[in-house]
Amino acid sequence: MNILVWLSMILLVLMVAIGGQKGARSFIALFFNFVILIVTIMFMVDPNVNPIILTLIATTILSCINLFYINDINIKTKTAFISTMSTIVLLLMFIILITESAMIQGFSEEEIEEIKGFSVYLGVDFVKVAASVIIMSTIGAITDTSISISSPMREIYRHNPNISRRELYLSGISIGKDILGTSANTLFFAFFGGYMALLIWFIDLDYTFGEIINSKIFSAEMITILSAGIGVALIIPITSWVTALVLMKAGAKEEEE
Amino acid sequence: MWFKGLLNKLTKMQLMTVIIVIICFVGSFLFVDNNHEFYNRTIAEVNEAELIDSDEIVDFHGNEDHIFVQKLIAKIQNGEEKGEVVHLNNEYSTSRAFDNEYSVGDELFVSIEDRIDESNELSGSILDVKRDQYILLIAWAFILILFFVGHKQGFYSAMSLVINAVIIGLALDFYIQTTNISLLLISGVSIILFTVISLFLVNGNNEKTYAAIASTLLGTLILFIVTSLIMWGTAGEGLRYEEMQFVTRAPEMVFMAGVLIGALGAIMDVAITMSSSLFNLYEKNHNISVKALKESGMDIGRDIMGTMTNILFFVYISGTIPMIILYLKNSAALGFTLNINLSLELARALAGGIGIVITIPIGVYMTIFFINRKRAKV
Lengths: 257, 378
Fold this sequence. Notes:
The structure holds two protein chains of two kinds. Chain A is an all-alpha fold. Chain A has helices at about 5-45, 50-70, 75-100, 110-115, 125-160, 165-205, 210-215, 215-255. Helix content of chain B is about 65%, strand content about 15%. In chain B, α3 (about 130-175) packs across α4 (about 185-205) and α8 (about 320-330) packs antiparallel against α9 (about 335-375). Chain B is globular, with a radius of gyration of 27 Å. Chains A and B meet through α1, α2, α3, α5 and α6 of A and β2, α3, α4, α5 and α6 of B.
């Protein structure tokens, strides 16, 4: 049997065995994510569609699935959703700027063997596609960090209803600080695992340090890793601020009633 | 006024750090702006760019695009011809999939080909773009944001990333120098180093860290065994190694090492989440029962497994988007395109997911073991 079928089956069995219903839901969400990613690519192929707008729509749907479907709709996931979307918009502007100026879009000299025989004049704006790739690779980590902050903040507020907004914000930041290191680590190793072959290739073919640093493919990968890191750091103050604001508003409403 | 107040608040140590950071910041930018002499390849800065021709084209598959031709005049920044002017031609398209549009101020690596007879000026061709200043810019943006958000912890996280990057570099270099050591053995040793260093740096020297290290290593080992068994059992059926990029070595080994190192960060994350939260519960209530610990641990695990698997999934799958677009626009069938471009990335993401999920019970039991050991001591 196909190796992918085997791996999926083992993952499904483990998720259900360890996570029960929630595990099953996580697996289904993974499947949905896959489908949405493929559908997004199908739309991206059309030159008349702006990849950036498409990405914003796709990330909205993806974060809805990962926040609301896995965790239900409640004040924690709602604030996490608002924070995720604001971070993505901010990050996207920065990424478009840097992909445009560093010219890391499309395919590199190293991939010439692979794209030989293909037409590269496709009418699709690859600069925008490159920015969209970077955002898409970060979305999982951003939603994860966001929910990991808003969820304990809700608990803190429940146990100390008299806490001030500033204190609540600071407790969010302090939770964020604890997870910042491990989140950055997770992303870093994930990317490195993917780039192992490339690194070996660089050393095997005697690339000089200057050639590696300036090559399109290495720069693209560094920019992706670092943008992802900036994303998980940026989401921390944003989520803390939004959650503190929303919880305070919601708390005030409860008192009035 | 506030600036003076801020200055008074800072300790001598902090002031020194700030000054050193500012010096490094300014120094590094000055360096990449003036490092042309360190390069062997000729670098030229574009002074004039003129569009001389544009054309509409339709390829074999009906894709429409525009092709533009630019004439560039650039000034050479290093080497024997430093200060001379070079004439370059550049062709680019609106899609820019395999070409770039250059504008005044861009720095390019060029090869000098000829002297134009009448004017005695140089002509050449463009090799690549000088991108080091952008890498530096984003690296600083990353370090500063990490520092502003995380202060000391942010600094430690950045440190552990740098140390891990150096270890990866050294390990791969060692692997390539010595021909007869297996990549898996080197990866194994590196994985132990990464785990110990990152967890100590992020989490400090305490029982929580020991429990997390033990769970990470056990989780990674089980992931290795499961993946190898499947790869051996199916003889790798369904993995399109021929589409693996940049392979100069046995692809199975490179793939396997990539799977393990790729999942390692996520596995560490799960392990540390399990051990810190269970130790927290124990510290709040020293008499908490093993059963209660186990239940809370599994609850936390259930909450994180979905989002953690998602992280790996998006990191791996998103990178294939440009190649899939290329295939689809060249009239390749959807099934074939996905099969060829996604098999390795999907396998990586799924295997990573298995590692994450399996580390949840491992983390719970391992932490309970360490908590019981601590209890016995008290």
